[in-house]
Specification:
The complex is a heterotetramer of chains A (100), B (680), C (457) and D (171). Chain A is mainly α and 100 residues long. In chain A, 78% of the residues lie in helices and 0% in strands. Chain C folds into three domains: 1-73, no CATH class; 78-267 and 385-456, no CATH class; 276-345. The chains are: A mainly alpha (100), B mainly alpha (680), C mainly alpha (457), D mainly alpha (171). Chains in contact: A-B, A-D, B-D, C-D.
Chain lengths: 100, 680, 457, 171
């Protein structure tokens, strides 16, 4: 039988993969995708616990997180488009105007 | 003041309308359309015309004894108590006040009436000129200043208007400021006027010091109170200084030189400012302050002589001019000479009378000349005109009327006033009369010379111009007609001394004309005769035997050249004053450059530079040294931080992960977990 | 041994019927789609006063089969430097999404693969995944026409899904459940199709569904005259057939959703008004009529074999009629015998299926009709229609229905007063919106200029 | 038994495609695998009897957000990007950090396993039935998460405006 632990490990795995993507990739779009992965991992946790506790609130939070993900994706992609128009690139480490 | 007398109560509005209009023009005029501009300005002048004439009629409606209205809007310069030279303690206070009496009434009538006509005329004349709104703005500003001048109840406020009209005259002479000659003429007028005004100002100061008041209505009282004897030195000095101002403004010898050049301005300006109104300000001022002049017979004598000499001198110059407007300019000067002659012999009312009629016909003459110039598309040289009489009939007829008037042919306006003056002059001094008489003849001669050269004889107009010779539009001809009517009938108000009696309250202090019979009729006949003689001569020379003038010119070569070049007066002035002034300026400039700049400023600069070497050293090595030291320390310290701050998203994310790692480890440790717990 | 078999059979049993249904649908769909194509071509032909395909088989009845064979036998071309993986994946994606949506649709009272408690959302969500088929296909074939078509369709589908979703929500409020079967039963209880309760929602869904299936006048993604064939340009043979199939399956899906939500699913018109019961005879009558028509056409056929086929068709129709009538008359003929009762018990299934399919095909016929009636929209007009008219109106519609229901439940208004009133309000607002929209026609829509497919497109 | 199979299937699919997302060179492929991962996660949700969340995941994530991603990728598509270096030069640092974190968290979970009740103690699925209605009540009942829900809607509005403003071509 499947216990909550399984779900926790699954979400941990997804989370780590997402982190690796965020930290190592150069392409901003893929970084955003990795962030989506992380959010999903969190969702799995929430749902698993809501199942464990037998209350629906975890799922409600998951819904909120999905909402956030939507907003974040919209804004992030908007930024990417604007940036791409100016700099003709989508590489994260060329976005270092902060450095100066 | 009676409640019924609305206009007298609101006389102070008269100058305000043009002021408002000019303010609007000079602020927003650029954005307004021409039609709107004309509506504004002419409308404002029309309003002041209505108010002015309303006031005049209500003044006349009063009984002769009470024809004086004076009131102040506010205290302008309340200087407080002071001692006059005669030791009186007076409380000097210059108000912003208005005095409305018969003399002012006449002036207001002239200014608003002729001003309005000329405004209407300008709508047509300036239609195709640039700076339409600018022109009308200046013109309205002039109206304001002139009305302030004539309505002022004290010399100081009068002086404000006086300077105002001077400014407007300068602006309008230089209206075409891109034309060098125009700009120069403006400057010339302004500077020459300054000379006169300097005298005027001194006169005012002296007046304040002597009488302690500037209000016209108080002058007489102050003189009486001061127990001044006739011919008192101070009063004479004041009178002469005021007259100096008058010579400047009214173009009398020796300060007349600016008026001919002032013809560079647009013709309506010449008509309004340099014929009808402004140049007569001097005469007005004299009459206004006649209380003083009456106490200074020597000064009066000077005035009379200057006037007479100016009259004949200008007349001679006018004889040989070819520029139509310049002829009129010299004629104006000589007519002004007449007025001063009148004042000089104590016939103030006659002077004002001539001023009135002169305003009519000289304004008309200028407008007519403008109409002619308009017709021959800008040509001003009479050599290039002729036989225009048939083509521009209205202009011709009106100008004929004006010419007859100025020549003193009865029963036109000029006849009455001039005859009055000559009569009084004869009574005072036969020599003066003789001069006036000759001048009358010359006037008739050169005015008809102008008329014949312009309208009669053979046409000398170039063909391409001749094709589009045309009568001016109605808004130009109508004023001509009105003025023509006035210059025909305008003189009749003087018949039987009615005009003189009207002015009594102002000129009462005039010395009673020395008794003794004067052959009025004989003088009349004589002046008419010489006028006719002049006309005949002009006809003979310029219609009958057109070749003669050149012959005569040839035979009198030297004299001719002398007169033709206006007695070289301008050159003499240049040589005597202008260039000397320039030299002085140059010298001073050289002094400034060498001593002030060279030694003072540059020397100081050099000294400073020299001394600054030390502070340079200090700054460079000590101050900057400290700064750089601090900066270097910071830089060295910042190396590890800079290594952390890559400015890259990913690395920051990496640091976040690191932080989570550490925190989680810390919590586990705090919770007391160790690797031992990993054992199942 | 036998016992284990028994057990395994027991385990499989609940999945048995759904499996059968699924196999049936998957097997039947291509055929149905093919004949829909034929029907479309025929309708087009008759609207343009032509005959349409008549060569293959009587009246070209076998044309779809021939087309299918042709497509299957064609060479399968994958263009140079196309992205092979995605190129291979895309058509399948479309097809899968379309097919998967079928799983929750109730074709009849009993005829449904799975009655999910989120059935409606399931269908909507799954069919929304069809976009990827289009977009990825367009991108993968690495051609400008395709990419442009793909982008267009992505934009178009996303925007119209919103409108369709809101329209669906309207019906959802009325039904109060997500299970499609319950929705239909709800309409049965109301005694009235939701079409008559919430017409605005239905029409919004109509327009939106046309756009979602990329059909004229909204066929931007494959506008032949502008972008060769849009995202399908580089596809040929079997992959193209898949796209084609997916398109028609989608049509069936949206039609089924519309039928289920607004047209009362498998119910006959006014299911609860008894004096209309004679409508139960309509299916049989229709079948007989068709049979008569084919018999009437039979002698006119040029070739012997064709005459024969026509007669065969007529016979088929008669058989259908018999099947449809049987349950209704069984008890009258054979009394209350168990056999008769069994036959009679088929009635809801048979008639339900008939009505459902009838409505679906009428809906699709409407699609075709519109396709041959209206010119194609410009892209910015398309976007403006969705964002500036349909979506606002659908939102207003949802609010209106909610208000009506609140009035009905909280304040006890009559159902038949509250809802028509709110509907009227919605219509008024819609009219106002349309007016303003016409005013805005002049300036270019934001979306249009953003995609550069504005006036100049 | 069946439960186990389903879980292993979905979990394996999710992890595999997640790894592919992070490692693929071509962005579109990453997007496709992300879609797969999301669908697998949805499957996990379904297995957890969160049907509503399952469909929300599909509609919002797959049908909405991912379309947006694919869209932007096509707009921003750079062939040069394919030939550039895909990973940062210090990629191994990130990897090490992640592994360390993973080990630590795994240890934490493993240690805390005793605190987690087993599946048998978990309440029956019927507790969360009917799922959609319960979520709805939790979201919209005034005592529940109404205010956060409204705030979330405002957040979405703001995000929408922001995205439009940023992506719109300045003319």
């Amino acid at each position: 039988m499947i216990g909550t632990g399984h779900y926790l490990f699954l979400s941990l795995a997804l989370f780590l993969i997402g982190v690796v993507g965020v930290v190592t990739r150069r392409n901003v779009i893929i970084i955003l995708m990795s962030i989506e992965l992380i959010l999903n991992a969190v969702n799995i946790n929430l749902v698993a616990f809501s199942r464990l506790v037998g209350s629906v609130e975890g799922q409600v939070f998951a819904i909120f997180i999905i909402t956030d993900a939507a907003a974040e994706a919209a804004v992030g992609l908007g930024i990417i488009i604007a940036f791409f128009r100016n700099r003709e690139t989508v590489l994260a480490d060329e976005m270092d105007l902060l450095k100066w | 003041m009676r409640p019924s007398e609305y206009f007298l109560a609101h006389i102070w509005l008269v100058p305000l309308f043009p002021l408002a209009a000019s303010a609007v023009m000079l602020l927003f005029g650029r954005k307004l359309s021409n039609s709107l501009v004309s509506v504004f300005c002419v409308g404002s002048v029309a309003l002041s015309l209505v108010y002015g004439f309303g006031a005049i009629f209500q003044l006349i409606a009063r009984p002769a004894a009470e024809r004086v209205v004076e009131f102040a809007l506010f205290n302008w310069i309340p200087a407080g108590p002071m001692h006059t030279t005669s030791g009186h303690l007076v409380n000097f206070n210059a108000q912003w006040g208005f005095l409305f009496d018969p003399l002012t009434a006449v002036m207001v009538g002239i200014v608003t009436g002729v001003g309005f006509l000329i405004h209407v005329y300008s709508i047509g004349y300036m239609a195709h000129e640039g700076g339409y709104y600018r022109f009308f703005g200046y013109l309205n500003l002039f109206m304001f200043s002139m009305l302030t001048l004539v309505l002022a109840n004290n010399i100081l406020l009068m002086f404000v208007g006086w300077e105002g009209v001077g400014l407007c005259s300068y602006l309008l002479i230089g209206f075409y400021f891109l034309k060098k000659s125009a700009a120069d003429a403006g400057k010339k007028a302004f500077i020459v006027n300054r000379i006169g005004d300097a005298g005027f100002l001194l006169g005012i100061f002296l007046l304040v010091g002597t009488l302690g008041t500037l209000n016209f209505s108080e002058l007489r009282g102050a003189i009486v109170a001061g127990h001044f004897a006739v011919g008192d030195a101070a009063l004479t000095a004041i009178a002469l200084l005021l007259f100096a101002g008058a010579t400047g403004k009214s173009a009398q010898i020796p300060l007349y030189v600016w008026l001919p050049d002032a013809m560079e301005g647009p013709t309506p300006v010449s008509a309004l400012i340099h014929a009808a109104t402004m140049v007569t300000a001097g005469v007005y001022m004299l009459v206004r302050t006649n209380a003083i002049f009456a106490m200074a017979p020597r000064a009066l004598a000077v005035v009379a002589v200057v006037g007479a000499v100016t009259a004949i001198f200008a007349a001679t110059m006018g004889v040989l001019q070819n520029d139509i407007k310049r002829v009129l300019a010299y004629s104006t000067i000589s007519q002004l000479g007449y007025m001063f002659l009148a004042c000089g012999v104590g016939a103030f009312s006659a002077g004002i009378f001539h001023l009135l009629t002169h305003a009519f016909f000289k304004g008309l003459l200028f407008l007519g000349a403008g109409s002619v110039i308009h017709a021959v598309s800008g040509e001003q040289d009479m050599q290039k005109m002729g036989a225009l009489g048939g083509k521009i009939r209205t202009t011709y007829l009106t100008m004929l009327a004006a010419t007859l008037a100025i020549a003193g042919i009865p029963p036109l306006a000029g006849f009455f006033s001039k005859d009055e003056i000559l009569a009084r002059a004869f009574r005072a001094n036969h020599a003066l009369w003789l001069v006036g008489w000759l001048t009358a003849g010359m006037t008739a001669f050169y005015m008809f010379r102008l008329l014949f050269l312009t309208f009669h004889g053979t046409s000398r107009v170039p063909h391409e111009v001749e094709r589009h010779i045309h009568e001016s539009p109605s808004n130009m001809t109508v004023p001509l007609i009105i003025l023509a009517v006035l210059s025909i009938v305008g003189g009749w108000i003087g018949i039987g001394g009615r005009f003189e009696r009207f002015l009594e309250p102002v000129t009462q202090s005039a010395p009673a004309s020395t008794a003794g019979e004067t052959p009025e009729a004989a003088l009349m006949i004589a002046s008419v005769a010489i006028a006719l003689g002049g006309i005949g001569l002009a006809w003979f020379l310029y219609i009958k035997r057109t070749e003669l003038p050149d012959k005569i010119a040839a035979s009198f070569g030297g004299l001719y050249r002398l007169v033709y070049n206006k007695y070289y007066v301008d050159q003499i002035y240049d040589a005597m004053f202008v260039n000397r002034t320039k030299d002085l300026g140059l010298t001073l400039g050289a002094f400034d450059r060498t001593f002030i700049d060279g030694l003072g400023v540059d020397g100081t600069g050099w000294l400073t530079r020299a001394t600054s070497v030390i502070s340079i050293f200090w700054d460079k090595w000590i101050i900057d040294g400290i700064v750089n030291l601090v900066a270097n320390v910071v830089r060295v310290l910042s190396i590890p931080v800079r290594w952390l701050q890559t400015g890259r998203v990913s690395s920051y994310a990496g640091f976040i992960v690191l932080g989570v790692l550490v925190l989680l480890g810390f919590y586990l440790h705090a919770a007391g977990y160790t690797l031992a717990n990993l054992r199942p | 041994m036998a016992h284990a078999l028994q057990a395994s059979l027991e385990a499989v049993k609940p999945f048995l019927l759904p499996l059968i249904y699924a196999v049936a649908i998957v097997a039947a769909l291509p055929l149905i789609a093919g004949y829909m194509v034929l029907m479309e071509r025929k309708v087009m032909a008759h609207m343009q006063v032509r005959l349409g395909p008549v060569r293959v088989g009587p009246h070209g009845l076998l044309q779809p089969i021939a087309d299918a064979f042709k497509l299957l036998l064609k060479e399968d071309i994958i263009p140079e430097n196309a992205d092979r993986l995605v190129f291979w994946l895309a058509p399948m994606l479309s097809m899968t999404a379309a097919m998967l949506a079928m799983a929750a649709l109730p074709f009849g009272p009993g005829f449904q693969i799975a009655d999910l408690n989120i059935g409606l959302l399931f269908v909507v969500g799954i069919s929304s995944m069809g976009i990827f088929g289009t977009v990825l296909g367009g991108w993968a074939s690495n051609s400008h026409y395709s990419l442009l078509g793909a982008l267009r369709s992505a934009a178009q589908l996303v925007s119209y899904e919103t409108a369709a979703g809101m329209a669906v929500v309207g019906a959802l409020l009325l039904a109060g459940t997500l299970s499609l079967r319950n929705i239909v039963e709800m309409q049965e209880n109301t005694g009235m199709w939701f079409l008559f309760v919430a017409p605005v929602g239905f029409f919004i869904y109509l327009v939106a569904s046309i756009a979602e299936t990329n059909r004229a006048p909204f066929d931007m993604p494959e506008a032949d005259s502008e972008l060769v064939a849009g995202y399908m340009t580089e596809f040929s043979g079997f992959r193209w057939a898949l796209y084609f199939l997916a398109e028609y399956t989608n049509m069936i899906v949206v039609a089924s959703i519309a039928t289920t939500l607004f047209l009362g699913g498998w119910l006959r018109p006014f299911p609860t008004t008894h004096w209309l019961n004679f409508l139960d005879w309509l299916p049989a009558a229709l079948m007989l009529g068709l049979a008569g028509y084919s018999l009437y056409r039979a002698p006119k056929q040029p070739v012997m074999i064709q005459k024969f086929v026509m007669v065969l068709v007529a016979g088929m129709f008669v058989a259908c009629a018999a099947i449809l009538v049987a349950p209704m008359v069984a008890t009258h003929i054979a009394g209350a015998s168990s056999m008769a009762l069994l036959v009679a018990s088929w009635k809801p299934a048979l008639h339900g299926g008939f009505w459902f399919l009838l409505k679906v095909f009428l809906y699709i016929y409407l699609f075709m009709w519109l396709r041959y009636t209206f010119p194609r929209y410009r892209f910015d007009q398309l976007m403006r229609l969705s964002w500036q008219f349909l979506i606002p109106v659908s939102i207003v519609n949802v609010m209106g229905i909610a208000l009506g229901l609140a009035l009905h439940r909280q304040w006890g208004w009559s159902y038949w007063v509250a809802l028509p009133m709110t509907t009227a309000i919605t219509l008024l607002i819609a009219a106002a919106l349309a007016r303003t929209g016409e005013k805005k026609e002049k300036d270019e829509a934001v979306v249009g200029e953003f995609w550069g497919t504005g006036r100049d497109a | 038994m069946l439960d186990r199979i389903v879980f292993d299937l979905f979990a394996g699919l999710a992890i595999l495609s997640a790894i592919l997302v992070v490692t693929r060179r071509n962005v579109i492929h990453s997007a496709i695998f992300l879609i797969t991962a999301l669908l697998a996660t949805a499957g996990i949700f379904l297995q957890l009897h969160a049907e509503f969340l399952f469909i929300v995941q599909i509609i919002l994530y797959v049908g909405g957000i991912m379309v947006l991603f694919v869209f932007v990728i096509m707009l921003v598509n750079l062939d040069v990007a394919l030939h550039q270096m895909q990973f940062r030069r210090q990629w191994w640092v990130g990897l090490l950090l992640a592994i360390a974190l993973g080990a630590e968290t795994a240890a934490a979970i493993y240690i805390g396993r005793l605190g987690l009740p087993g599946p048998e103690t978990a309440p029956p699925a019927s507790v969360l039935e009917p799922n959609t209605e319960m979520v709805g009540h939790a979201l919209f009942s005034a005592g529940g998460y109404m205010l956060p829900f409204e705030i979330a809607s405002v957040l979405l509005l703001v995000a929408m405006i922001g995205a439009v403003v940023m992506a719109k071509r300045r003319t």
